[in-house]
């Protein structure tokens, strides 16, 4: 499964399953994802400690990628 996060247009109550219904926070996506899933991050300013969140996601066997450009 691929999950999408966009700090500008996302809303954590979205389903996160495509760019137009992205989550706002990486933490929310990590909570929804299962081992083997991919989380795609849109460029933007993230409120949380992004390097720490990415490390935690990778420890859970999640793949992190970047989608789009600013």
What are the defining features of this structure?
70 residues, 3-stranded parallel beta sheet, alpha/beta
3D structure, described in words:
This protein has 2 helices and 3 strands; from the N terminus they run βαβαβ. The chain has 70 residues and is α/β, with parallel strands linked by helices. The protein has one domain. Strands 1-2-3 form a 3-stranded parallel β-sheet, with helices on one face. The longest helix is centred in the last third of the chain and has 10 residues, at 50-59. The radius of gyration is 10 Å and the shape is globular. The N and C termini lie far apart (25 Å). The model has no long low-confidence stretch (mean pLDDT 93).
List the helices and strands and how they pair.
Layout: E1 2-5, H1 26-32, E2 38-41, H2 50-59, E3 63-66
Parallel strand pairs: 1-2, 2-3
Radius of gyration: 10 Å
Structural class designation: alpha/beta
Low-confidence stretches: none
Coarse morphology = globular
- What multimeric state do the chains show? single chain
The overall pLDDT, averaged over residues, is 93
The major β-sheet equals: 3 strands, parallel
Percent of sequence in beta strands: 15-25%
* SSE string, helices as H and strands as E: EHEHE
Strand line-up across the major sheet: 1-2-3
Percent helix range: 10-25%
Total count of strands: 3
The first-to-last residue Cα distance is: 25 Å
Separate helix tally? 2
Whole-number tally of structural domains? 1
């Amino acid at each position: 499964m691929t999950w999408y996060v966009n700090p500008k247009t996302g809303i954590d109550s979205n389903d996160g399953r495509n760019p137009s219904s992205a989550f706002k926070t990486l933490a929310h996506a990590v909570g929804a994802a299962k081992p083997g899933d991919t989380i795609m991050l849109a460029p933007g300013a993230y409120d949380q400690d992004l390097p720490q969140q990415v490390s935690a996601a990778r420890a859970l066997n999640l793949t992190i990628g970047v989608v789009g450009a600013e």
